[in-house]
Amino acid sequence: MVLPHAAVETPVFMPVGTQATVKAIPQHLLEELGAQIILGNTYHLYLRPGHELIRKLGGLHRFMSWPRAMLTDSGGFQVFSLSDLRKVTEDGVQFRSHLDGSSHFFSPEHSIDVQIALGADILMAFDECTEYPADYARARKSLDLTLRWAQRSKDHFEAHQQERPWPDAFAGQTQSLFGIVQGGMFPDLRREAAERLVEMDFPGYAIGGLSVGEPRALTREIIEATLPLLPADKPRYVMGVGYPEEIVEYAAMGVDMMDCVLPTRAARHGLLFTSEGRLNIKNRRFAEDQGPLDPECRCMVCARYSRAYLRHLFVTQELLGAVLNTLHNLAFYLDTMESVRDAIELGVLPALLARVRVRNTDAAARQL
Ligand SMILES: [Zn+2]
After folding, report:
1. What is the pLDDT of residues 268-279, one digit of tens each?
2. Fewest Cβ atoms nearer than 10 Å: which of 13, 201, 203, 300?
3. Does the pLDDT of residue 55 top 90, yes or no?
4. Starting at the edge strand that comes first in sequence, how are the strands of the sheet with 84-88 ordered?
5. Would you give the DSSP letter of residue 277?
6. How many H-runs (helices) and E-runs (strands) does the chain carry?
7. Is the Cβ–Cβ distance between 41 and 73 less than 8 Å?
8. Which residue out of 121, 259, 294, 335 is catalytically annotated?
9. Whole-number pLDDT of residue 356
């Protein structure tokens, strides 16, 4: 996938950089870890420091000194999950800031304006993330609104994309706007959403409205049903997933892009992903453990520090603990995806999948 700021090898995992930072990790280390593309959150950046300020400072890439690719969400998900007193109308969403209670309004047009000002390589259409559970009538109504908003997002983007804050070096290369498939947990609504969006002709498509509290088997079922309806020659992005074993499964199904706060958020809570399964670093059994977090991991943390030291940092609430834990978890996710890309290239993906499945079964057995 060739984007204005970088070519991105897929399938790719995208670390989440909510407030123009992937929490606890400086940008040069993200590069060293092999992060190819990161996410920014439109809702948060709109509230602080404000999109006009970021536009004035040359866009999000320059503001945070991130030379590689970037994607911004539409702000819709945060508006629906974080803000109080939101009121959805045909025109958009009236909401109150989770910071100071001030009143704001997001429409598809405004979301696109904010995203153009931020200047990411990929923008997302403004959608309504249907809550779970939602009955058929509710999912139907929500999807219809999302589809009307998708067309408005696209029309506005096409009329205003030249307002992006990039320097001349990128002349001729433009931002891309992706459409988002909603439809709750109903395969026929998902099908309709996919068909309508493909008619609108976006350069890439996301499957949204998953990881919202539904059982994992259902997440997988919806992805499996929706993916073949989206063109395989354009990027297909599943938003907000998943555990390491899931991202391997989804990549094997044909998903090109995934993002999730799990590796970074879990790291700050001491939950670490390893080739031997998950471990909780605060556990007393690590107090005298001089081994690395993950003997198979080649990251800078596993090469240098012991489980005993990482446990100590966590127990004493030292900031370095969050930094090192996050570094490892991100390395684990990014390396996992790299091994998927290698396996695809070598034609040995089924073997890798089988290995991941066996490893999970073993890890689950050990935890019992
Ligand atoms: Zn490691």
Report:
1. 999 999 999 999
2. 201
3. yes
4. 84-88, 93-96, 103-106
5. E
6. 14, 16
7. yes
8. 259
9. 87
